[in-house]
Amino acid sequence: MTAEVKKIIxxxxxxxxxxxxxxxxxxxxxxxxxxxxxxxxxxxxAKELGKxxxxxxxxxxxxxxxxxxxxxxxxxxxxxxxAQMEKWVSVFNSWDLCDQCCMNLFDxxxxxxxxxxxxxxxxxxxxxxxxxxxxxxxxxxxxxMADRDFFKFFPLVELMAGDERNFVRKAVNWALRQIGKRNKxxxxxxxxxxxxxxxxxxxxxxxxxRDAIRELEGPAVQKxxxxx
Length: 228
Known about the structure:
The structure is a single chain. By secondary structure, the protein is an all-alpha fold. It contains 15 helices and no strands. α12 (166-180) runs parallel beside α14 and α13 packs antiparallel against α14.
């Protein structure tokens, strides 16, 4: 551990609380290597540090939960290569680390669409979640993607809707809802897909479908997409 990394970890520890760590555990977050620092604290540190690819790698190597989230926040997406994405995703051990990496780093890479599809097909719980998390985040962040790009995700949403693992089914649902909120056309197609998924003989699939239909047909979403 370099002197700079040690200094950062020491600063994180000063802002860590055991009650936060206990709260993380209650929400299903692996706390073996967690200190108990909040996201606002980590975002503040990230802003102060700025983008730094080398430092991000060093923070990730510590295995400390908050250090890895901070790494996601400060890494430079332009310098990310496929090998790093595969290395990082292979050790995801909680939904929040998975989501933070996808929301703040992986979705900004040129490999995001490719990895969304590849990872959604993988069996590992958090890797599969990462695939669907990327789909969801791309629907919100990537304004250049065409509707046809999202249609590529639909077969996987349908296929994996039956995965009963909690962190997977929630990510599948997240992807379906976010795609369906992007515009009128995708809303229509996402609802068709949701109603198809509803017919599956699976508790997970039925929950995913009902929840998505409720939101996508709701007045808030319909009003929002009518303005686009």
